[in-house]
Amino acid sequence: MPPPSPRRLSLQQIVEGQRRAAFVGRQAELGLYRTNFALPPEDPRHRFVFHVRGNAGVGKTSLVREWREAAGEFGALTASVDESADSVPDVLADFAAQFAEQGHPLKALDRLLATYRRARHDAAGRLAADSETPGGAPSPGALAAAQAGLIAAGAIPVVGALAGGIDPAVVARGAGGLRAVFGGRARQQEEALLLAEPVRVLTPVFVAELDRVADTVPWIALFLDTYERTAPQLDRWLADLLTPGRYGDLPANLVLTLAGQRRLDPVHWGDRSRLVADVPLGPFTEAESRQLLHGRGVVTESVVREVLRLSGGLPVLVSTLAANPGAAGEANATAVERFLAGESDPARRAAALACALPRRFDEDLVAVAVAAPRNGPHAVPDLYDWLHELPFVAERHSGHSRYHAVVRAPMLRLQRTGSPRRWKAAHDRLADAFVARRDAAAEGIDPERLWAEQPWRRAALDVLYHRLCARPRTALPEALRAGIELCGQAPSRARHWARTLAEAGEDADNAVLRDWGRDLLAAITDHGPRPTAALGLLLTRAELTDTDRAAALVVRAWDRFRAGELDAALSDHGRAIAVDPRSERAHQGRAVILRSLGRHEEALADLDRAEEIAPAWAWAVRERGETYRRMGRLAEALTVLDRAHALDPSDAVPLGSRGLVRHALGRHEEALDDFDRAIALWPEYAWALVRRSRVRTVLGDPVGALADLDRAEELSPGQAGTEGERGEVYRATDRPGEAVACYDRALALDPDYAWAYGSRALALEALGRVPEALADLDRALELDPDYAWARAQRRRLAAEG
């Protein structure tokens, strides 16, 4: 029987083998990394973190690839990410997927990540539909807690929705803070916590899974490339990973590698420097450059010297010029011409230049950039395939390709200076192409949530980039206007926007754009998750229209309101109105704050003005109805809420508010109908479920009432109001002992819940515990001296005693 034939290599394996064979230089760095695996973790010379740093094009990514291969030779389980994973959940998901491919799945982490993705999607949808939930005004502390939760979630739109007219008090009031916002479809309290604080919940599971897997492999090696882009999101987390007791004990056979352009931030890494091997990379030495050129067959001395001169030893340029060394001796040859000197086809050369214009490209964008036919000798598909044969073109995980920055920059300079007219025309074409993509991505999405959707946001930022490159001065106002809205969303979105300005400034060689991008990036990165510093820049330096300035002040006011800075928030809304008296959103925002302070008449005056400016704006009408309800003007509230519902029949909130009004008027059947319709429109409307339970109790349906409360608890676990209403059901059905237990749980969740003290007093009275009942009523009045019902019950009990 003939021996079995050896296993055939795949194309990718052959290509990777050729790439590794062509790798030259960096022997000292390779030796340093390999030696580390020969040292036991207990050896003081062993390093747990390697940091490769150096300028773009210096070969960091190539070295990291070699290190990963070297780690594999020592039996290491390896995983690598780059800037495409720019959040902790994304990094963990990529690591888990790569571990699974190597036969070591992180099953517990995978399950938790799946739960997180589903809950985040549900919460994002809920925030899109959410608006102010009727109820008592939130405290500044609850608002601050809600803000913290929103920031922790990161990917969930916050002020984008708020700036669109949604009262941010929904974040705090409806369910006592962040869980009211993140309730969504969460089935357990743990799921709500996962959504609010994903890093804190996911990381211990990741560490535990690493520890489990570490027992089965000699080493684990993790790599984070292009770290200069992801450090703002990951630096603190990685440093905390190495802090004893923070997330659990990391396995000692773990080696972490970071590759970026800058030194590690001493704020996060200063105390951990003894763990880190700092590996700075410079250009190739002349010997290393000659070795690479010789390996590529470039041996003519005049050509070698020209490559050395043009490349400066930068590995990406040496490699590119080695593939296309061109004719030596042309004193005026540019780096771009050298990159393409080996290609004589003018159509291909033009395509290579044109495709440097977009920051990333696919086949469709090649057609736009090149204006080439779909068929024929220079058809777009053929050009697209040819571009990927060029050594400076890389394809990312997203499916979009891009040029290496060191090669792209001189190509852009050549086109910008060679023909400003063609430069503008090409960027205009690309901008129009991205407008079409942006508009297509907007289909079926609430206009208030567009910036929260990645496909739309990415296309919109590319539109801004190409408009800025074509006409920096005239496009800047539009770009700054976009930033006003993005400053009110997750910090990562504002960073992408600021980076777009900086890149456009660099590529268009425009100092104004460069300065804006640099300063905005610093403001967004250095001042934490709040947008106050970036908005301050826009307000003090930008040549904004009155409308834009008012919009920026409104966004900053919402941020300050959520942080409990009510005076500052009122001031910003007031300034917005002074700048643009016709800003309905500024009047609306100030009305919400005034109402939360109990200044109802002033709030109504602002709503009068908002409705005068935008008569058909359903939100303003709805807010008027809710304000009347809180003032006890129930008949007026009913009339206004009828109008709000007529203006927007798809909005569940006016129906919920009207249901509560009808219940207060004793029209319980109509109230039940309103709540039924509201919940049919919005099945996750926990506030309405709790209030419907109250109506069902009055109508003699305790089973239905308890079912509503169970569902509300499922949606927004751990809420004092839900437990308090459950106590009401038990008290109404003559089960005072169970009622007291519910009120106890409500007060444990919210010790300042005056209503629960008053209701528990009646349950205690029914059990014959009158002194305790009197003490509860005293406490209720201490918390709320205007609580007339509690005062009347206190007098009654005292008289009967």
UniProtKB/TrEMBL annotation:
- InterPro entries assigned to the protein according to its UniProt record, in alphabetical order: TPR-like_helical_dom_sf, TPR_rpt, Ycf3
- Give the source's domain of life in one word: Bacteria
Q: Report if keyword Nucleotide-binding is assigned.
A: no
Q: Which UniProt keywords apply?
A: Repeat, TPR repeat
* UniProt keyword annotation of Repeat present: yes
Pfam families noted in UniProt: TPR_11 (PF13414), TPR_16 (PF13432)
Show me the TPR repeat boundaries.
618-651, 652-685, 720-753, 754-787
Q: Known PANTHER family for this protein?
A: TETRATRICOPEPTIDE REPEAT PROTEIN 6, UDP-N-ACETYLGLUCOSAMINE--PEPTIDE N-ACETYLGLUCOSAMINYLTRANSFERASE SPINDLY-RELATED
Listed name of the protein: Uncharacterized protein
Which organism does this sequence originate in? Streptomyces griseus subsp. griseus (strain JCM 4626 / CBS 651.72 / NBRC 13350 / KCC S-0626 / ISP 5235)
